[in-house]
Design goal:
about 260 residues; Rossmann fold; eight-stranded mixed beta sheet; 8 helices; 8 strands; disordered N terminus
Length: about 260
């Protein structure tokens, strides 16, 4: 049974994801208005252990959040992670929140969510394309949750190096990524079990097939080892896995 309060948005105000429910012309997946309006439901039904991952990310973020620094969420979408971190952050810790997203519609909904939740900490929401890099400064924590996989591989090294350069010493970068299996056998099995999860959560064969086609040229996953190597090339000294479920993985790296 799904949690009706996920993402702090009551079920009565959260729209059900039916973007791919009917036959539609093939096109690349995007994060515009149609997606933004159903994004909470999409995440809950498409990402395994989404609520638990948000809780784990929040706990780890608090471990590294430093007084007088900033927390960045790159690909912040509707700011669910801001609220998850704020819920466990010490009330007296001076921490600035910075959200960055390429979708104006996501940022609009994120700002509305923070206002409705009476989010009391200083925050800024920026519109930017991460393929073009990002300005990070005085960051003790950087989150990229289901985000790096949408950055074109050609630009990932430059982006992660820029993040590392803008972080404080002892700061952390937290990633959630969809990943490839280390062999074709495991990759097929992991994907099969992932689609089984989507079926259990109410997605039809048509929805699964059409979304897979829409994501084909947009979401480019790496193997876990490739993500770890990317982080180390950028200068991160310690890299570890804190979550793994078939083809989803949580990775934390420290400067």
């Amino acid at each position: 049974m799904s949690d009706p309060q996920i993402g702090t948005r009551p079920a009565s105000t959260r729209r059900r994801d039916q973007i791919f429910a009917g036959a539609r012309r093939a096109s690349d997946f995007d994060f515009g208005r149609e997606t933004a309006e159903v994004f909470d439901d999409m995440l809950e039904r498409s990402v395994p252990f989404y609520t638990e991952m948000q809780s784990m990310v929040a706990d780890l973020a608090v471990d590294f959040a430093a007084e007088g620094s900033s927390l960045y969420d790159l690909g912040c979408s509707t700011c669910t992670s801001f609220l998850a971190v704020d819920d466990v952050l010490p009330r007296d810790l001076d921490l600035r929140f910075v959200g960055v997203d390429s979708s104006p519609e996501m940022l609009e909904l994120g700002r509305k969510r923070l206002e409705e939740a009476r989010f009391a900490r200083p925050f800024e929401l920026r519109h930017a394309d991460l393929n073009q890099g990002v300005e990070v400064a005085n960051a003790s924590v950087v989150l990229m949750l289901l985000t790096l996989q949408f950055v074109r591989p050609l630009y990932r090294d430059t982006l992660v190096r820029g993040i590392h350069a803008g972080m404080r010493d002892q700061g952390c970068l937290i990633l959630i990524e969809k990943v490839l299996g280390e062999s074709s056998l495991f990759n097929r099995l992991f994907i099969k079990h992932y689609y089984d999860l989507k079926r259990r959560n109410g997605y039809t064969e048509l929805e699964i097939a059409q979304k897979r086609e829409a994501l084909e040229n947009v979401l480019v996953p790496y193997r876990i080892a490739e993500n770890q190597e990317l982080l180390r090339r950028a200068g991160f000294s310690q890299v570890d896995i804190f979550f793994k479920w078939y083809n989803f993985c949580g990775i934390i790296a420290t400067k």
